[in-house]
Amino acid sequence: MINQLVKNIKKTNAPIVIGLDPMLNYIPAQIQKKAFEEFGETLEGAAEAIWRFNKEIVDKTCDLIPAVKPQIAMYEQFGLPGLKVFKRTVDYCQEKGLIVIGDIKRGDIGSTSSAYAAGHIGSVQVGSKRYTPFGEDFVTVNPYLGSDGVNPFMDVCKEEKKGLFILVKTSNPSSGEFQDRQIDGKPLYELVGEKVAEWGASCMGEEYSYIGAVAGATYPEMGKTLRRIMPKAYILVPGYGAQGGKGKDLVHFFNEDGLGAIVNSSRGIIAAYKQEKYASYGEENFADASRAAVEDMIADIKDALEGR
Q1: How far apart are CA 97 and CA 63, in angstroms?
Q2: Are 153 and 139 within 8 A, CB to CB?
């Protein structure tokens, strides 16, 4: 699947991913009103509002972008109706030709890890039939438990030609409490990056590995180090926009070929209409505001890469 992701990025010339992380307060009143009229102020009503919100944004932006990244927690909070919309969103985005990165951040061992992998990027046997439960193209994985937690995902990746993005250096302010701690003269995130490169060597696509990394835009100098450590790993870069990352902060995450990284923006795009810059679109045209925010993000990253 890494080959298709690279192909999509080259086709769109847009190394970005929209984080489909909908909160109810992001969803315009008119969408909530219609969903609640049909399903009541229920979990089903909330899930329906999320679906309609997602669909409009995807419809307005799918020609500009290579991928989306739904964060499963935003759907799980609404129980089974939310999970059904997560699956519906995955399927719809794939129908639109988009790569889907399931932001699930799973991290366990043995049969539990195998079950997570089967449920999200693999399939399960039920009697004489086989089913694909969620069917994302990539998922995010927490490596804190070591190879015992990652290997089951890698086994499914090899079998299904799917991919992983492994947490290496996250964008949140307290990430350094553990990730920056020195071990044998190196920060922990560098040791994790070295392990990602090792894991990735056994799962190579045409140009890059199926095994990528997550490294936050809020730590650009660390991105330079990680790019060197993991030359064949695609880096998923959160932290752009709402968390403070700018195009100029991102250049070190990319290789000289302009590939090797894909930058995520979530509320900066899906809730763009709430920003002063895009307020003129209004709630009625929230998806047009999202499209404008995507276009601005693409231009910002392009300018930064051309100017490095």
Answers
A1: 9
A2: yes
Catalytically active residues are 105
Q: Share the mean pLDDT of the chain.
A: 94
Q: Rounded distance, CA 138 to CA 157, Å?
A: 9
Range of the domain at 262: 2-306
Q: In total, how many domains does the chain have?
A: 1
Question: pTM of this prediction?
Answer: 0.95
Instruction: Report the CATH number at residue 155.
Output: 3.20.20.70
Mode of pairing for the β-strands spanning 138-141 and 129-131:
unpaired
CA distance 282 to 303: 28
The confidence band for 128, taking pLDDT boundaries of 50, 70 and 90, is very high
- The label of the residue with tokens 């990319």 reads 254
Give the model's pLDDT for residue 242.
59
Residue 239, pLDDT score: 81
Contact 263, 101 (CB under 8 A): no
Amino acid in the structure at residue 115: A
The pLDDT of residue 243 is above 70: no
Q: How far apart are CA 196 and CA 18, in angstroms?
A: 24
Q: What local confidence, expressed as pLDDT, does residue 193 receive? A: 97
For 220, the 3-state DSSP assignment is helix
Contact indicator for 78, 39 with CB cutoff of 8 Å:
no
